[in-house]
Amino acid sequence: LPEKSFEAFAIAHNKNNEQLWNIHHEVIIAEHVKENPGTRPALWWQYTAPRLPLGTFKGWFIDGKLPQPRKRLGSTGTPAYEVTAVGPSFALGIPEICTGVDESDHQPTKAKPRF
What we know:
Helices cover 30% and strands 7% of the residues. It has three helices and four strands. The protein has helices at 3-12, 17-35, 42-47, and strands at 78-79, 90-91, 94-95, 98-99. The strands form two sheets. The chain has a two-stranded antiparallel ribbon with strand order 1-4. Helix 1 runs antiparallel to helix 2 (17-35).
């Protein structure tokens, strides 16, 4: 199954996503990487990505369940959960909320922040 078709199918049949992923993930990843080198499909982050170790968020229900974030390669800002009372959340391995971001990093002529 092509990755895009699988993800559309899996999202439409939500309750079976993990089962379908477990059956077809090798083919999906291979197709995805062929078209998008250096990336992984969204469901890989949800079901297969390595998790932050137990004890990272000790006592929280999310402890050991969040994907390990991607390594930061540039940009400004700090993930908000590191410095404020905001719970951690990631989109494809990148923190969704950051503080201290240099607005010039977000101008169309500048490169996107890289993690």
